[in-house]
Amino acid sequence: MTTTISMAAMMAERSRSGRMELPRDATLRLRAGPHGVRIRAESGTVLVTREGDLDDHLMERGDELLITGTGLVVAWALVPSSVVLSRDVERSTPPHAGSAAA
């Protein structure tokens, strides 16, 4: 089973339930975009691979991973799992107008 989700659909799903349930062997495909996406494993075990990243990331309950860039990201549920996807607020918030550059 393959699930493909866009950022808009992801945010709509998140606003409804706060998390996504992935049955065993389900895959979630997404692109983070310029602001990045944070993925947090709530339960189960999820393998995350990113285009251009030589490492795969095995995530279990409580683990978080910041996804940046425009490359394809695939999360594969090795067992029934739930994940929370959210925009990276720190990266997407512009600096205050009055702050000085370092």
Describe, in plain words, how this protein is organized in 3D:
This protein has 102 residues and is mainly beta. It has a single domain (2-89), classed as Sandwich (Jelly Rolls), CATH 2.60.120. 15% of the residues lie in helices and 54% in strands. The chain has helices spanning 7-17, 89-92, and strands at 2-4, 20-22, 27-43, 45-50, 56-60, 64-77, 81-87. Strands 1, 2, 3, 4, 5, 6 and 7 form a seven-stranded mixed sheet that branches. A hairpin with a 5-residue loop joins strand 4 (45-50) and strand 5 (56-60). The radius of gyration is 14 Å and the shape is globular. It starts with a strand and ends in a 10-residue tail after the last helix.
The helix tally amounts to 2
| Distance N to C terminus | 48 Å
Q: What name does CATH use for the topology?
A: Jelly Rolls
Largest sheet: 7 strands, mixed
Count of all domains = 1
CATH class: Mainly Beta
Secondary-structure blueprint of this entry?
Blueprint: E1 2-4, H1 7-17, E2 20-22, E3 27-43, E4 45-50, E5 56-60, E6 64-77, E7 81-87, H2 89-92
Parallel strand pairs: 1-3
Antiparallel strand pairs: 2-7, 3-6, 3-7, 4-5, 4-6
